[in-house]
Amino acid sequence: MKIQKAASAGTMESSDIMITILPSQEEKIEIDLNSNVQKQFGRQICSVIKEELKQAGITAATVRAVDKGALDCTIRARMDAAIARACGEEN
Amino acid sequence: MDEYLLRTMMFVPGNNPGMIRDAGIYGSDAVMFDLEDSVAVDQKDAARFLVREALATLEYDVPLLVVRINDPRTAWGKADLEAIVPLGRAAIRLPKTETAEDVRYCAQIIEEIEKASGLAAGTTKMMAAVESAEGVLNAREIACASPRLMGIALGAEDYVTNLKTTRSPEGTELMFGRSMILHAARAAGIAAIDTVYSDVDNEEGLRAETELIHQLGFDGKSVINPRQISVIHEVFTPSEKEVQKALAVMDAIREANAKGSGVISLNGKMIDKPVVERAKRALRLAAAMGTYPEEELG
After folding, report:
1. Do A77 and B54 touch (CB under 8 A)?
2. ipTM
3. Where are the domains of chain B?
4. In order of start, what are the domains of chain A with their CATH numbers?
5. pLDDT tens column, A21-70
6. Could you tell me which of A19, B49, B83, B204 has the fewest CB atoms within 10 Å of its CB?
7. What residues of chain B lie within 8 A of the CB of A10, using their CB?
8. Does domain B8-236 have CATH number 3.20.20.60?
9. Count of alpha carbons within 13 angstroms of residue A76, beta-carbon side
10. d(CA B44, CA B69)
11. Å from A25 to nearest chain B CA?
């Protein structure tokens, strides 16, 4: 899938993660993560984000993530929603 | 059907990760993840993904998981079914059911998804929520519409609006609807679930309403706040006297069986099937509250 437009999913509430996906001119994945558990789980969160992009076949995108203590399943769900919206498949 | 105890079914908004994560810790008999009225129209997709991922990943120590979908005749409802049914983990609650055809329509889509997902036909159970005068009048046909149906529930907020009235503390306006749903459920052999009690700070009101629906014969009640669970479970717990009576009935059955006697009597009175059924149910409810050891249920 190709990112058509910038799109977000999630909230800034506790246990959630706000994901914003932006189209990228370059053929690369860039992740900008802000989390209060960055030291302990930053690498794990980024790896879930990358895995979801890979599964969707996305090779060019910038992802901004503001994490509020989300579980992996929440990160996956917010990524799936953001990807669908960014690719024009919302709802 | 008596497979599940359904004293409490807790509503969990489908787009709230914190509440979804914690849904299993409060001790309700069922948890219902909502994709319908508690989800904003521009978040339907996000909630669907969230509930799907939670059901696919998280362990819930809850006997029954349910997902309330959007109207299956809409794109949202169809997408909800396509996301949830293949997991084979949750019953589907159909909102605003008005006719038996509504149930059959949804059951047909579920059947197709089960087939495409390699699930055994009939894996997915259904509950029908009745929320209008039309639905109440058709309750009997609705309750019998599909072998997937395990329960029928009253959704009172929409129902009283449809009746052009409001909810009162006494619930006078709900008497007919409750009675219809209860009778429909019993005739079909499925569970009857009462509506939510919306005033979460009014424990006495909740207790009074639960006592009423317990006396009517309902299996339980929908819950919108974890604080309501213990009050409802208390009302549904048999008294010590009822437990002792039930135990005496079970002893009498064992004694009669040991003697090879087909006639069971207790204190000179014959014990017939309804008495045995009530005794078993009382012990099951007592066991659920931990006041009677489940392993002795036999």
Report:
1. yes
2. 0.95
3. 8-236, 240-297
4. 7-86 (3.30.230.10)
5. 999 989 999 999 999 999 999 999 999 999 999 999 999 999 999 999 99
6. B204
7. 46
8. yes
9. 20
10. 10
11. 27
